[in-house]
# Entry
Amino acid sequence: MRQVAVIGSGPAGYYSAEALQKLYGDEVRIDMIDRMPVPYGLIRFGVAPDHQSIKAVSKRYEKVALSDNVRFVGNVCVGRDVSVAELLALYDAVILATGAPDDRPLDIPGGDLPGVVGSAAFVGWYNGHPEFAELDPPLDVAAAAVIGNGNVALDVARILAKTPAEFGGSDIVGHAFSALGGSAIREITILGRRGPHQIAMTPKELGELGHLEDATPVVDPEDFPPALDDALLEPGQRKSVTHLREFAGLPGGKAKTIRFDFFAKPIRVEGEGRVERVIVERTRLDDKGAAIGTGETYEVPCGLVVTCIGYKTPPIEGIPYEADRGRFANDAGVIGGGLYCVGWARRGPSGTIGTNRPDGYEVAERIAADIGPGARKEGRSGLDRLLEARGVDVVTFRDWQRIEAAEAARARDGSPREKFVAIAEMLGARGR
Ligand code: NAP
# Structure
């Protein structure tokens, strides 16, 4: 029997478990350890609450979770309740599927002023992550700046722009729903340090901005290269740029605007005790497509700044780490000594949820080649013994199902769930 521990129960963790099951059938036991009492990681805490169709992939993970040889071990923090070294002694293989939950910092003067928040915190706040429930972002201001030209910037801009009615059917948490309902923000500026051809936004997500009830996307036609150059783009990127070109032709007239400011590199955040403006330098592209400052600066007045410039995996002491890429040092998912990594912990924060599937399958095959029939390690019974001795209150998948039912029962009309935000509330909802 092979014993495998997966740390993290987000998409990368579940695809790895699914792959191991396919390879080994009944000849493997997989423990999925998560520091949260609830599973699915990014699906619950990262994917936008108004993108329920994306969140539906958790049904596939549930199927894996409910099989006999997979076990959810929630509310267990590796590093606090059990160490990686202890797991390596108990299991044939340990897979780090810990994602990239930390913000890359915006390293410019004033980047730490109150009112500047990272996307991990802001997204965590509207998605009910226990660590960010108290964020209380300033929404009593007229303007917000969103820094970055990726899909997270789009999520943040869209959530700031939506009307309460547009959150129908979403599972945005109550505290964010009411705070956003009272928001005074009318002008949202998306700052991109490069141009329309260099955006990292996918067409479906970008297209949504063209259909908002009370907000119009605004793009300056002057920012585009000649239309013929679009033919050089790969098809997805061409579609995204086509959306931007359409936005440039939209009539205004709605109460809110989402303004795309391209060739705009933030160099400083200013304000008396809180953010009041971002100082931006105009850029141009060099022949390699990098943004070069032109020396021309201007200010974007705003009372809220959300940085959406990428994430990083938190390092774990003793495990080789590539700080510049924000991920564990690895060779195709292999760290060494029985330790592996998948998903954003392996690749860095790029790609969609589906990208993690081949990734998990590849690592499962490497594990199969490395561990063969397994080394008769103690596995789950050893973990249970350790956790019991340490008084850890473990949450099982059955417990999660009770929490899930309780969240569904208290949902707003039309919403699939009202998430519990405090860990104690989640634990209390197990009803035991
Ligand atoms: P991303 O796609 O890597 O975009 C990061 C953006 O930040 C880029 O536009 C980058 O510009 C910019 N940036 C980085 N450092 C900067 C700096 N110092 N100053 C100004 N701008 C800076 O990252 P993301 O938006 O966080 O998304 C992460 C991953 O999740 C992506 O693969 C994304 O597609 C995925 N995701 C998907 C969905 C969805 O499918 N619905 C939703 C959310 C996220 P440069 O290009 O110039 O470096």
